[in-house]
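for the recovery benchmark. tokens below, seq after
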């Protein structure tokens, strides 16, 4: 797949346009329209810094002028590795203004991952902070550039902060001010020539490259077009009832698809609302911002839920403005879902989706049992869903099977991954998600696990997520991950890594507890290991590979 190849059929493309899903606008043009419609409204907040829609539009132009001065234009890929700062949004829209393609990297990525992204995408530039969380990203960039050699490494590194003295390192502040356009040029009402909103990009062009969210191996690149990704954000925004009064708090990494467009940053901006950037995900930081900025919507991953519930119990914060709290990125245990809403005084919305496309949301008026026990239903009427067995044939509603999907915002091929694409998609274009789900008659999906997250213990198949959810019902266990490790006798044995309030129960006590909960005896973990915390991947999922490796090193 090339960066500009359209992979939907002509008939599908026509149908999506006729339905209004694809609107034929680039993100550069969308920001221009938002500035015209909401010019004086606050669009973006980061600490004591604020940008109106008119400000954001003008900043995108300034950044675009600087990027053009560096020779960056339509189709160029640029790795953006920034923490939760407003500069991510400024850079992103600046890149859209010149028709370039941001590659969303996570702050936690290091040389191996960034080198991979640079190599696969062919990135001409990277955007990084000088330092963040005690790590020097300039040193990372020096290492990546040295590893790839002249002519194959990014020719430019834009640094938010101090760029140092390295050749080819440019200050973001210098970039946005060196060739700043005149005020007349940045006026939202100014008459502009063709291409000034988007560097000549076409709405069918790839607008950005997201990363696959697996917990093993190097990430694959996911091409998203202007048309399909805008619909992704708009469809989620509609389900979430976003409007000009929405104040969205970006708690999770801002480059994470969940945070950016489900509905997230983009959905909020397309609705005329306000985005508030949280520098870290701690409940203390987030609650202070909710109180100060009157936040109405935010998004969490399950590992954060217990921390937020415990902090809310202190009663020290005014969370009265919060209307909806989304939880996604992994399955939210039902027990936690039932506690979260009352703890925060907000409606819980479960989110099950993927950077590859399909997004499922519980609805704001769904009964409590559906909200707490399912992971939602598709946001688009044109999302096509199949749940199939091992033979590839559809299974009845209520039966578990692999989820296959296609639709107006689900990719048809990973970027520069032809071999993988041959197995990741069916001949008729359905994406094989690897998720095992059950579909209810209402259309809601219940995530059972991952095909690759099944543990084969002596021929017995164990879905890790099922056991993990039941482990969390033990009064001493606050977080859990079930991992399969090699075993000469059984093929695999199961190890439960648990975070506990006090002393951990032993394997015998855990087995008794699970038996009381109705689980088959073979699903009880062979070993229980107490840990102080569960390691997370760059996108906030439990890193089971790391846990297994740590166990094998003991």
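predicted aa per position
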């Amino acid at each position: 797949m090339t960066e500009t190849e359209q992979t939907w059929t002509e008939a599908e493309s026509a149908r999506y346009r006729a339905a209004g899903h694809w609107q034929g606008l680039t993100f550069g043009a969308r920001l221009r329209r938002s500035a015209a419609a909401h010019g004086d409204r606050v669009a973006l907040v980061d600490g004591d810094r604020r940008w109106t829609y008119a400000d954001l539009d003008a900043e995108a132009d300034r950044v675009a002028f600087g990027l053009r001065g560096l020779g960056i234009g339509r189709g160029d890929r640029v790795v953006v590795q920034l923490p939760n700062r407003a500069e991510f949004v400024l850079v992103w829209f600046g890149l859209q203004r010149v028709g370039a393609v941001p590659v969303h990297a996570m702050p936690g990525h290091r040389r191996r991952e960034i080198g991979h992204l640079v190599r696969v995408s062919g990135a001409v530039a990277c955007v990084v902070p000088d330092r963040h969380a005690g790590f020097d990203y300039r040193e990372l960039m020096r290492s990546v550039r040295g590893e790839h050699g002249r002519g194959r490494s990014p020719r430019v590194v834009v640094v938010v902060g101090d760029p140092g003295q390295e050749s080819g390192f440019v200050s973001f502040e210098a970039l946005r001010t060196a060739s700043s356009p005149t005020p007349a040029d940045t006026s939202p009402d100014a008459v502009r020539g063709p291409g000034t909103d988007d560097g000549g990009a076409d709405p069918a062009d790839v607008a950005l490259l997201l990363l696959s969210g697996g917990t093993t191996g190097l990430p694959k690149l996911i091409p998203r077009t202007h048309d399909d990704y805008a619909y992704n954000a708009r469809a989620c925004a509609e389900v979430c009832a976003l409007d000009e009064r929405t104040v969205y708090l970006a708690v999770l990494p801002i480059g994470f698809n969940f945070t950016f467009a489900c509905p997230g940053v983009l959905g909020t901006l397309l609705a005329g609302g306000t985005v508030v950037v949280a520098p870290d995900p701690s409940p203390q930081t987030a609650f202070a911002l909710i109180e100060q900025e009157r936040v109405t919507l935010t998004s969490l991953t399950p590992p954060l839920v217990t921390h937020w519930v415990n902090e809310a119990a202190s009663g020290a914060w005014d969370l009265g403005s919060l209307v909806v709290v989304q939880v996604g990125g992994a399955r939210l245990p039902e027990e936690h879902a039932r506690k979260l809403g009352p703890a925060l005084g907000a409606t819980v919305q479960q989110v099950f989706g993927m950077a590859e496309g399909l997004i499922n949301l519980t609805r704001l008026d769904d009964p409590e049992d559906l909200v707490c026990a399912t992971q939602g239903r598709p946001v688009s009427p044109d999302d096509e869903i199949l749940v199939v067995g091992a033979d590839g044939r559809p299974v009845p509603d209520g039966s578990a099977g692999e989820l296959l999907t296609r639709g107006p915002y689900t990719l048809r091929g990973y970027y520069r991954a032809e071999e993988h694409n041959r197995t990741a998609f069916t001949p008729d274009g359905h994406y094989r998600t690897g998720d095992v789900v059950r579909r209810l008659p209402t259309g809601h999906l219940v995530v059972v696990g991952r095909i690759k997250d099944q543990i084969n213990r002596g021929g017995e198949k164990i879905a890790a997520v099922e056991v993990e959810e039941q482990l969390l019902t033990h009064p001493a266990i606050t977080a859990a991950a079930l991992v399969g490790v090699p075993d000469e006798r059984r093929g695999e044995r199961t190890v439960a890594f648990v975070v506990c309030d006090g002393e951990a129960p032993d394997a015998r006590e855990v087995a008794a507890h699970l038996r009381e909960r109705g689980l088959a005896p073979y699903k009880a973990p062979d070993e229980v290991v107490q840990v102080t915390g569960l390691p997370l991947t760059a996108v906030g999922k439990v890193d089971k590979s790391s846990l297994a490796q740590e166990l094998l090193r003991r």
